[in-house]
Amino acid sequence: MNILEINNLNVSYGSKQVIKNLSMNIEKNKITAIIGPSGCGKSTLLSTLNLMVTENGGSFTGEILFKDKDVLSYEKDHLRRMIGIVFQKPTPFPFSIYKNLTYAPKYYGIKDKNKLNEIVESTLKRVGLYEEIDKDLNMLATKLSGGQQQRLCIGRALTVEPEILLMDEPCSALDRKNTANIEEMLLELSKDYTIVIVTHNLYQAKRISDYTAFILDGELIEYDKTENIFNRPKDDRTKEYIKGIYG
Amino acid sequence: MRERLKDNLFRTWIVLSTSLVFIIVVYMFLYIFINGAGTISREFLFSDPKGMPMGSEGGIFPAIVGSLLLMLIACVFASILAISTAIYLVFYCSSERVKRLIHLIIQCMSGVPSIILGLFGYTSLVLHLGLGRSLISGGITLGVMIFPYIQVRVEKTLIEVDKSVVDASYALGVSKVYTLYKLIFPMCKFDIVSAITLAGGFAMGAAAPIILTAAVIFAPVPESIFSPVMALPFHLYILTGEGISLEKAYGTALVLMLILLIINIISALINFTRKEHE
């Protein structure tokens, strides 16, 4: 089942067109990886899906359907609640871990202390931080290590119970061990969520994703099951890109 | 060889300049301290001015309270406007032209001589609005004076907030207002409070804006915001200008400087706490 359908999408910043006539569908409860060289429009595509792109001065034409309804027909806030995003650089709020995780639930009207505590605890367990922080919920989130910060941010995105999780190179600032941690977590999360991940790391795409899309200069070159993209790419450009990395 | 000479000359020059400023400040403070310390007593701090002419004996209590109240009103008035303006410019205004225009206006405001602000307050507030020479007229006039200082610093603080953290909040589907109150204000509160206290100190020391709008030679501790008040800088001006009592003038100057020093220390402590927090 497709949770997102993108039809003839064009995105531009001012006069510069970043995404050109792109169409693709994203399947529910799968991990879809988007790969391509720097500046090809991967991140722009991601930020268009939850309309963050307009916040930063971009505009788009074409159609994006979320659960068979045009994204523009949703309230922007509501849409972003259902389509969460995690950025490349960890962005913890400079408050305690507890406050980071209750920030959004409180906005959505959850006032009950027990309920909030429950959300915090289950989220921390889910992202594997519960043991690591030794139950010190009042610790400043900015004091966590980079990898822990990123997992907290993923957790924070989960506190609003989204249906899709967009990830913009969530591991590019992390070391190998933390990356492995997060990948393991994503595999676990994909049982409940649809994940779209932009990555520079082809190994990562290969390891965790079900589908892979290759984008070059804003155009979708090839989109298929991950094993097909990596083992039997149809397009020469895909072949070259993958070969270039594998050397 | 020549480069080294230049280097040394430059170094001497900056060290000398810095020490000169330092010496002037210390000398001024010590001079006032030595001349004023003898005057300071419980009675001086906590009783009304007495004697003939008024002020030659007694204390300066109403002036201390008056100055603090004037500062408070100025801070409240100015910071509400300044913070709102800064928020508008940073988070809501999308037109570069409007931004430039507002910045230009604020720059001009900060350049208006304080005596002109005093005259403006006198004609508009005291006469036209009929507020009379009062705490509220003087407070608002001082508020207009410190508005640009608070606005500029608050805007700078807001601009420096990490954009990606703000985006992360929007990405949770949270509204702009919630983001402002629950994320941006808590992140900037120390800077904002420190900007307001510093500006408050500046307002407290200013005499020109209140000469025509609030301050009188003698008034008891004000009963309402519509009462005229005494204020330290104006009292000081009268004591020396009319040659009433040089001794009391030194005492008043010392009290004023001590209060300003305390305000500055508070502001510095707030900044220090912020650094600790990070």
- Assembly classification: heterodimer
Note the run of SSEs of chain B as H and E.
HHEEHHHHHHHHH
Mean pLDDT value of chain A = 89
Radius of gyration of chain A: 18 Å
Number of domains of chain B: 1
What is the CA–CA distance across the termini of chain B?
Answer: 45 Å
Query: What proportion of the residues of chain B form beta strands (DSSP E)?
Result: under 5%
What overall form of chain A do the CA principal axes indicate? globular
Order the strands across the largest sheet of chain B as they lie in space: 1-2
Describe the strand arrangement of the main beta sheet of chain A, using strand numbers: 6-7-8-3-9-10
Number of β-strand runs of chain B = 2
Structural class of chain B: mainly alpha
The CATH architecture of chain B can be named as Orthogonal Bundle
User: How much of the residues of chain A is beta strand, in percent?
Assistant: 25-35%
Largest sheet of chain A: 6 strands, mixed
Number of helices of chain B: 11
- What's the helix-strand series of chain A? EEEHEEHEHHHEHEHEEHH
What ranges of chain A have pLDDT less than 50 throughout 5 or more consecutive residues?
A: none
If you had to describe this structure to a student in words, what would you say it looks like?
The complex is a heterodimer of chains A (247) and B (278). Helix content of chain A is 37%, strand content 27%. With 247 residues, chain A is α/β, with parallel strands linked by helices. Chain A has one domain (2-92, 163-246): P-loop containing nucleotide triphosphate hydrolases (Rossmann fold, 3-Layer(aba) Sandwich). In chain A, helix 3 crosses helix 4 (113-126) and helix 3 runs parallel beside helix 5. Chain A is globular, with a radius of gyration of 18 Å. The model of chain B has no long low-confidence stretch (mean pLDDT 92). Chain B has one domain: MetI-like (MetI-like fold). Chain B has helices spanning 2-36, 42-46, 61-92, 96-111, 114-128, 135-160, 163-171, 176-205, 208-211, 232-241, 246-277; strands at 49-50, 57-58. The longest helix of chain B has 35 residues, at 2-36. The radius of gyration of chain B is 22 Å and the shape is globular. In chain B, a hairpin with a 6-residue loop joins strand 1 (49-50) and strand 2 (57-58). Chain B has 278 residues and is mainly alpha-helical. Chain B contains eleven helices and two strands. A two-stranded antiparallel ribbon of chain B has the order 1-2. The chains are: A alpha/beta (247), B mainly alpha (278). The A-B interface holds A 50, 52, 55, 76-82, 84-85, 87, 89, 91-95, 103-104, 106-107, 140, 142, 153, 156-157, 159-160 and B 162, 164-165, 167-175, 178, 182-183, 186-187, 277-278.
